[in-house]
Amino acid sequence: MFGLNRARKTAAVIAAGAAAAATALLGAPTAVAAPQPIVGGSTTTTTSYPFMMQITDASQNQFCGGTLVSSTKVVTAAHCMVGETTSSVRVVGGRTYLNGTNGTVSRVSKIWINPGYTDATNGDDVAVLTLSTAMSYTPASYVSSSQTSVYAAGTTARILGWGTTSENGSSSNQLRTATVPIVSDSSCASSYGSDFVQSDMVCAGYTSGGVDTCQGDSGGPLLIGGVLAGITSWGEGCAEAGYPGVYTRLTTFSSLVTAQVNS
Ligand code: ARG
């Protein structure tokens, strides 16, 4: 068993600045990991990635990411929505900074959680939110179920989020992005054993670690060729050598997502 960070809304706590809670939620046995940049990449803006949504609580404290796929539909992780209700969640578009007050804030009129979802390490980690207020930002397109070849090992993928910039660190006030290579399924299975469910997950990261998503990035996009192909889901620690980030394999759930987008 790994000390997997399948924690979810934990990030809300981190965003609120509770370092102690961060330790509690990670529950990782990983004693002392050197500070490792998650999105070891660089700061960016929602102007550059207009489909990048903050998923927040009612007080607009961000705890997960999401991807706008139509004017009123947002794809995120199922594990982000556990325990949430339509009144507890907001989606914020066009806001690059966590402490910003700009952009569009929408309430959520429906939360669809993949009915198969139990735990991120069992797969099925996808949810679709229906917005009460349409977003005027350009949505992302997402993979169709037949596009399984996008996950060829070594393919460059882009990750985005406001999550913690080190394993036990604090969230980034500004949106960040990085690129990571897709990892082969066999290699990911070697890292994670039976927790890696090949049909439902895809891994990305460098063998040596150093660049990864982390707590608070969950629900956000993994883009391949600019198209939504994965959802930030889980990993052992963050950016650790030998433990790539694990993302929802969106081709598997594309039809389910489309049914929600069209509903
Ligand atoms: N579960 C985390 C969240 O809720 C995301 C963890 C991603 N971890 C990783 N090593 N890529 O924000």
UniProtKB/TrEMBL annotation:
Location(s) in or outside the cell: Secreted
GO biological process, one term: protein maturation
Molecular function per GO: serine-type endopeptidase activity
Keyword annotations of the record: Disulfide bond, Hydrolase, Protease, Secreted, Serine protease, Signal
GO CC terms in record: extracellular region
Main location: secreted
PROSITE patterns: TRYPSIN_DOM (PS50240), TRYPSIN_HIS (PS00134), TRYPSIN_SER (PS00135)
Signal sequence residues: 1-33
Superkingdom of origin: Bacteria
Domain Peptidase S1: 38-262
Record-stated family: Belongs to the peptidase S1 family.
UniProt-recorded name of the protein: Serine protease
